[in-house]
Structures are given as structure tokens and as C-alpha cells.
Amino acid sequence: MQRFATAPWPVSLKLISFFGSLLIAGVAYGAWSGIPPTGFARLVGYLITGVILAIPSGAAMFVVAGYEVDGSRLYVRRLFWATEIGLEGLSRIRRDPGAIRRCLRVFGNGGLYSFTGIYQNRELGRFRMYATDPGRPVILSLANRAVVVTPAEPEAFIRHLLMCFPGVEVDADKADA
To answer: Among 74, 89, 146, 147, fewest CB within 10 Å belongs to which?
Structure first.
């Protein structure tokens, strides 16, 4: 099993995470300070405050902590588990920072500690993204979908995938971008 670190967080991810966490903490404090001293409303107030505070905890659980490639599987390391992605049908690997511009987040996290989930744009269609730096994507074209990852050393990641899948096409024009 070969391990790969994630790309370092860009300033945008740091700012989104910092100000998002600050905003959530402020909203939680406002909810907590408005809890009545007695009655059923007090229980509801504690419940609402707890749900608000669970948002950054939930986002942190899904942070992208690294990647591992084991034969025909890619594992996206999270804090406490790994998301397994089958690489059967891998036909193309490319690096193209412009490929995920103007994408629409269908479902997922748009910058609270990572960019993960289901995204869509005209060029790639609907795709899964497991990224820390969307400015440095490696796009894996599988049989029926695309997966976007952002390893710290994309060239080493691509070389390793080519060892595992020798017939895969690499977009040379974009790989050096």
C-alpha cells in the first residue's frame, strides 16, 4: 500500500475554515445565551446549541487526511476511517486546474476543513471530490464517473497509478500545468 499526503491547505481553505468556525461558534453562543432558565424550552435550547456545535465536528470527521493506493483501490483517509474507491475502469489521469472551475456543489462540504462531496460542472459532469486544494486537482476518469483528489505530490501519485494501471492515458498537456 502506497501512501500520499494531501496538498497543503491554501489560504482560501484556511480562511473559510477559520471564519466558518467563528461564525458557527457565534451562532452557538447566541443560541446558548438565549436558553430560558426552566421548562421544556430549556431542553430545546440545549438541543439546538448541540446541533449547531456538531456542524464543525461533523465536518472535521470528513476532512481529507491523505490517500492510499492498494492495487486497484484508492483509499481516502479520514480522521477515523477511509473511504474506499474502486479504480476498475480507470482510463485517464490528468491534472487540469481549470477542469473544476465553476463547479456546482450538489452535496457535500464546500470549504469547512476540506472540499468533499458530489460536485458538477459542464466539463466533468457529476464527479466526487476529495480535496484540500482545488487549485491542484488530479482527475481520475473511471468507467462511469470522475474522481478528483489533491495529493501533495501529484507526479508521484500519477506515476504510482501508472505502475498499477499501465494502459491508462495521461493527459500530458495538463499534467505539467
So the answer is: 89
